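step 4 of 6: structure.
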Amino acid sequence: MKILLVEDSERLQRSLSAGLKRHGFSVDQAFDGEQALRFVKQNQYDTIILDLVLPKVHGLNVLSTLRNDGNNSQVLILSANDQTEDRIRGLDLGADDYMVKPFSFDELVSRLRALNRRLSGIKNPVLEVAGVKIDTVARLVRFDDVVINLTPHEFKLLEYLVRRRGRVFSHDQLIDQLYDAASYVTRNAVEAHISSLRKRLKASGAPGLVKTRRGFGYLVE
Amino acid sequence: MKSIRSRLNLTIISTLVLVLSLTAVFLYFRISQHVVSVYDNSLHDKAQALISLTELDEEGLEFDFAEEGVMNEFEPGELAHYYQLWELGTNLLIKSPSLLEADLPLAGIALGHYRFQDLILPDGRAGRLIEINFMPRVEMDDEEEIVETPQPRAITMVYARERKSLDETLFAIGMTIFSIVVAVLLVTALLVWHLVGRGLLPLSILARQVSKIDESSLSARLSQPGEQSLEIAPIIDQLNHLLERLQSAFEREKRFSSNVAHELRTPLSELKTLSEVGQMMPEDREQLIAFFKDVGEISNQMEKVVITLLELARSDAGLLRSDPEEINLSSLCDSIWQMAKNDHVFDKQLIKQIPEGLIISTDREKFSMILNNIFVNAISYSPQEANIELSVEIAGDSLILRVKNMATDLRPEDIVHMKDRFWRKNKSQEGTSHSGLGLTLVYALARILKFDISLDLDNQRIFVITISGVPLVLR
């Protein structure tokens, strides 16, 4: 899940992005409204975590610009403004969720997962394909009740493809969606992760879920 | 609690009852006096008639009225009148047949006088008498006979008759007056009730309007429908001013609470996230060290905000007192500048134009806080490498201190807001390093030290803070 974190507090940016990355999210960081709008034009984000009191362009203006431009990324407002009117204004302008500071980091992660489920249309946090169960909360993959040990990159890749079953994703699309702008990830690295994922699934007796469409990319059928 | 309307009604009606009752009693007294007087006059006339029919001649006293068939009212009967005559007040001369065996009372009065008295007539009816003392008329046939006529002697006559008609008239008069008073009272009470209610209508409307106002409707203003009342208009004006002040106080309070909450929420969420995320990565020593550094900075900032808020609260509560001492101004400015340098990273110079040895008398701690806040603001809001100017001007026994710095972001319209609590030109651009309380504290402390503070921004975007009234120690 690719996230744009728009927050002017450097300290909060630092801790939040470190924590979110730990949970398998790829995070791009914007420190003001202008930067956020620039990032959104250049990248496709699943979710935008948006502070409201931002330098240069106010968070609500960022949100309304996004929606006016037809951007459908999910927006979670993270603000110190706790008044009901603030929440109503944010949600009415097109935000999908609103959290008030100070917040629980775990709750933020849960809400992001919930937004992700809403995005994929799959409500169950445990995804299942051909007997392979992917627990998106515990971040575990099982086949016949046996845990398959995956690295965070492999898990992220598998979850992304399973959530979008039947759709083919090229190397570039996967890089764009699964890694943040600051990470330098090559096509070879993606191929290496796919190969490693296939090997681990095969080693545990699971069927080969990740297929290759030559010249197009990868998919889970 | 009694209403003004009830109290006014009660007072006015009670007064009316009293006034009307007194008037009625007085009226009844005067009318009854007149009626009794008329009645007495008729008694007197009758008595005079009887007297005129009494004469003295050579044969002695003659009572023509006593002759049979002349005055039938003195015959015994249901409506009989009575008379009785005495000579010299003791010798009974004659009495009416209606008296039978009874006598009329005799008080005895001087000649030519008369008196009236109520009595119970011999037949048991209420009556009234006239007692009159007179000399009988002497009948003279010719001058020669005068010598032979006996000398007249004073006669006392008592004439009495029933007074039922008088009592009935008095009763009718009394009842008429009473009825009029009751009717007038009833009509007046209704009129008073209605008119007082009408007169107090603007007050009732005002009361209704006021009762509808609560903390959620402080923007409402009171109004007086229809013609403006001279008495109510100033009350409405004052109440509206009060509402205005109350509304702005509520808004200020709300804004203040919201600002405090906002100022504390951001660092709190930073702390919370640092703590939660830090626990997720115990193996990442480098990251944890960075987190701890952040925690330290956040704590310092929160401490600053809390200390400033406490100082402001103490100042608001009047708990801060000035404790003046003699201070070398130049040295103090140097040490405050050095403190600012230690706390903030900047490449700016303080251009100080203060004569050495200038001594002021003020509270060192509070004055230091004022200078520190002014310096930190000047450093933070001036462009990089811009210098800060500090100059003094001696005005009699006090000093005027000026701190100048370039402030490119500031606009003239910002000046009025600068002393507001939590006001910042751009909250986000300043991050969490400034809380917007610095100048508020400067103003609060200056008030305690009895300094005047003024802020100016000229066309070249030079921002000047002037502190005047700093007591100078003259040697």
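step 5 of 6: annotate
 - Chain B has a mean pLDDT of 87.
 - Chain B touches chain A through 29 residues (CB under 8 Å).
step 6 of 6: archive
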